[in-house]
Design a protein that fits this description.
Distance between the termini: 36 Å
Low-confidence stretches: none
CATH architecture: Alpha-Beta Complex
Order of helices and strands: HHEHEEEEHEHEHEEHEEEE
Oligomer: single chain
Structural class: alpha+beta
Helix content: 25-40%
CATH class: Alpha Beta
Shape: globular
């Protein structure tokens, strides 16, 4: 089958929420082909693209997914929710739940002659947010696949829950932000912002420059989530997840 069959299957799986029963074709040959498939789905799905998630910014996530480094995936308005939302998932879905630090951009960071620095990228940020990403691989092997499939499958994003935005803390404080997670009222996990590529500011700068290498760029209004900072963990239908972050606030979601 052609790459178009893969694009059609990934789009259908995203729209329906159902797991794809069989592989539509061979795995993408490399990361460039995988991202081209992701982009084709993003451009044809009919949803509003409002930002990006960064996958595998932590060593734990890279180890779990057998990835050599981070990769981007799209965030859609149709799957972007405020704190306190009840998110529908299907019994067949994975509900891997990832507490993350997110940003909303105040201005574009388009192509120029030299890479954007961390300081310049932070100067383009409007607000910082506590967030929770729900991850759900749609292909048959789930988390036991090759990383090219994860990239083609939109970075495995299912939904993003965004807490209220606040003013950026000092740059020196960003990597030190701590996080505590409760499930159904019981303390379960904690994490440190530096677990995601050394800090959320580092992840954001990586994305700003990576997108330019792909002939894209960060835009004003984009929402960016920078990767899990706790252990990678699963939740169940009915679970209530609360994540509290020093300096930036609390976010919650019920599945």
């Amino acid at each position: 089958m052609s790459s178009q069959a893969t694009i059609d299957a990934l789009r259908a799986g995203r729209l329906s929420g159902e797991k794809i029963a069989v592989y539509p074709a061979a795995a993408p040959a490399d990361m460039a082909e995988a991202f081209a498939m992701q982009s084709a789905v993003r451009e044809s799905i009919g949803w509003k693209h409002v930002g990006w998630k960064i996958g595998c910014t932590s060593e734990r996530a890279q180890k779990a997914l057998k990835a050599d480094g981070p990769f981007p995936g799209p965030v859609y308005a149709e799957q972007l929710f405020p704190s306190g939302t009840h998110i529908k998932t299907l019994p067949s879905n994975s509900r891997t739940t990832e507490p993350e630090i997110a940003f909303t951009m105040a201005r574009d960071l388009s192509k120029r002659g030299n890479p954007w620095s961390v300081e310049e990228v932070l100067a383009a940020v409007a607000t910082i947010h506590p967030s929770i990403e729900i991850v759900n691989p749609r292909l048959p092997k789930g988390f036991n696949d090759v990383v090219e499939w994860y990239v083609a499958d939109g970075g495995l994003n299912h939904a993003l829950v965004l807490g209220p935005g606040v003013k950026l803390p000092k740059q020196s404080d960003l990597a030190r932000i701590t996080n505590r997670v409760k499930i159904n009222g019981q303390q379960k996990y904690s994490g440190l912002a530096s677990n995601a590529l050394g800090g959320p500011e580092m992840a954001l700068a990586w994305l700003a420059n990576d997108l330019i290498s792909k002939s894209l760029f960060l835009r004003a209004g984009d929402v960016i989530t920078t990767g899990v900072i706790t252990e990678v963990f699963e939740t169940s239908i009915g679970d209530l997840i609360d994540a509290t972050y020093d300096l930036i606030g609390t976010v919650s979601v019920q599945l």
